[in-house]
Amino acid sequence: MEHEIKIDNRGDFGLWAIEVAKQIISSEGLELARAARDGTDDDVRAAGNALGQAITNAMMEIYDGLIDRADEG
Question: What pLDDT does 73 receive?
Fold first, then answer.
């Protein structure tokens, strides 16, 4: 999510989605699991919100890329 990728077809999008999901789960998912195990309800809520925000950010990133590409074409 830090470098530009080229998505020309459904397969490319699938590969991007898998990589992004791995990144999100390895960071935010781990924090949610830790909060569920050791934290308070507020910790779990905050970690869940962070996971949701990471997913939203990824979707907005790809949407913005698609809009930019449409504007160029």
Answer: 64
Identify the burial level of 13 via C-beta atoms within 10 angstroms of its C-beta, where 0-12 means exposed, 13-18 middle and 19 or more buried: middle
SS3 annotation, 2-50: CCCCCCCCHHHHHHHHHHHHHHHHHHHHHHHHHHHHHCCHHHHHHHHHH
pLDDT at position 8 over 70 = yes
Beta carbons of 50 and 31 less than 8 angstroms apart: yes
Closest by CA position to 55, among listed 23, 24, 12: 24
| Burial category of 25 from C-beta neighbours within 10 Å (exposed 0-12, middle 13-18, buried 19 and up) | middle
How much is the pTM?
0.76
